[in-house]
Amino acid sequence: MRRRRLWLAAGLALLLAWLVGYPLAVTLAAAVRGAPGEPAFAALGDLIREPAELAALLRSLWISLASVALAAAIGVPLALLVTRLEIPGRRLLAALLALPVALPPLVGVIAFLYLYGESGLAARAVQALLGLTGAPWRFSGAAAILFVHAGSMYVYFYLFTRAALQREDGALAEAAAALGAGRWRTFWRVGLPLLSPALAGAAVLVFMTALGSFSAPYLFGGSFRVMTTQILASKQNGDLVHAEAETALLVVVAFAGLALARRLERRRDLAHTQHGTPPAPRRARRPLARLAAAVAGWGAALLLLAPHLTLLLLSFVPPATWTTEALPPVLSLANYRELGAGAERLRPIVNSLWMAAAATGLAVALGLGAARAAQSAGRRLGGLLEWLIAIPWAIPGTAFAFALATTWAVHEPRALRFLLVGTPWLLPLAYTARALPLTGQASLAAFRRLDPALDEAAAVLGASPWRRFARVTLPAIAPAVAAGASLAFLAALGDFVLSVILYTYETRPISIEILSSLRLQETGVAAVYGVLLAVASAVAFLLFGRERER
Known about the structure:
It is a single chain. By secondary structure, the chain is mainly alpha-helical. It folds into 2 domains: 244 residues, MetI-like (MetI-like fold, Orthogonal Bundle); 215 residues, MetI-like (MetI-like fold), CATH 1.10.3720. The protein contains 23 helices and no strands.
């Protein structure tokens, strides 16, 4: 039995290595090899020496660092506010502040566009209020990218900090107070060190997310290119050597970030072993202070969710009815009816649904199998499986998509390479690989929480391994697997980064149709597609939240 499990684990490791690691290895090898007739590493050396390429790399790094600082400045105070103070509707407020984490990145980006863009709701209101003849600002470049990143990535600091505060032992703060430490001294000397693993983990996550960000730089960057948009530009210009070198650089940085993230994860796990009762939210003594806390919390929620509310509003604005007015003069269901008017409007929805469903099914099967094998295999093989599960999360979507396009553009069965570019199967395969961290990590967490005594009891009663898995293990882990599956489905349903590089006209998903609608000035139709994705994401997020509370 032991030998069989090891063979199964080794087989899964090889399959995941082919699915996830092989395309990256092919691209890294091509980047090292460079153009024909050139020495090894020449392309990478040329890349660093070119001012435009070096500028794109430096922009990616400082944009990522600035995103970490801005996200922390928003997320940490909000977590302290909703965790430490008694605010009317505190539970609802906490859930609303966490909602952006479930929305597809493209939906968030177009929501910011509709509110803060040059023809957006806020710009129109300011223009009408001040009597200006043109837009009051240009929403583009580094400032726009950072604004979008801060308004969407704060949620990682918020969730990590809130979770750490909810596990904090209140006796430690009480002991510090008994020794004469004031509130601020207690926070700096006791609270902040306990929060440091969560803050470090959130910082790495935001940095990696910002480094791989594509939607905001693509729509708002203009001439301000970062590495993710530079890869696409090089590919579209036919400069595959540069695209391979750019991908290699991002992959190396991503692997370094993944290694750091896994190390910090172990530190967080160690920090989570502390026991005790967290301090209860305190009520401000003065009525003015209570009012200020409520206004700050709910005002922040309204400000942060305003772009998404604007997206909902714009979905009800009929075409060609909103011209120079500050607010839309007419609201109707015309845009929603437009989606059902013809097969071409529905095709992207159908494409996204079947590709997301296929990818989710494969990702659940692979993630569940790999998680099970990782638990029963040895330390080295189990660790390898966990690494393979996590890799697609760390690799920027643009780099991963280009690696897939490079690897599956030729038919070499002896090298385990098959022609998938231009077929309807490449996007579901890409979605499957990107969904593995969601399904695999959810399954790993569920297996780690599982009481081994249940399986042992079933074995004593004579149940076979498959019967024990079907009747004992699977029902126990089903909520976690379902939550991971729902998040994987929504990630595939709203994907833009992989789709913009790998799609064909026949397989174009919702995200590509949103981009096409924006280019055709079909604002309302694009908003409707975005609302549909947002609603589906919110439902999946609620299901995931219910599982987490169990």
